[in-house]
Write a structure and sequence with these properties.
Blueprint lengths: L6 H27 L1 E5 L5 E6 L4 E6 L8 H31 L9
Antiparallel strand pairs: 1-2, 2-3
Length: about 110
Amino acid sequence: MAREIDEAWIDEAIERYRRVEDLHAGFEKAVAAHTVSVHSPDQSIEVVVTAAGDIVDVRIHDGLRHREPSEFAREMRAVVTSAAEAARWAREKLHGEVFGSLRTLEEH
C-alpha cells in the first residue's frame, strides 16, 4: 500500500526549517555582538564580555601600586566569574527574544 504524501505539510516543514536556520544565524550574530559590563566587588576592575562569553576588554579603575597581589587576584576571579554569569544571562535573554515567537511542533 502506497503512502500518501502531504505536499503542503512538506512545504511547511521546509519553510519552518529555513526560518529556524535564519533565526539561528541571527542569534549567533547577536550573541557575538551583544556585550555586558560587570565590575569586581570593590568596583576596581571592569570586564566587558560578549553574550558568547568572550572577554573583549578589561579595565582597571584604581592603580595597582598599593594593591596586594592576593587581593587583586581575588577581585579578578570574582569579576571573571560574574562576567561568565552575565554572558550566560545575556545568551538566555537573547535566545528568548529571537526564538520566543516560534511555535512548538505540538502547536501546529
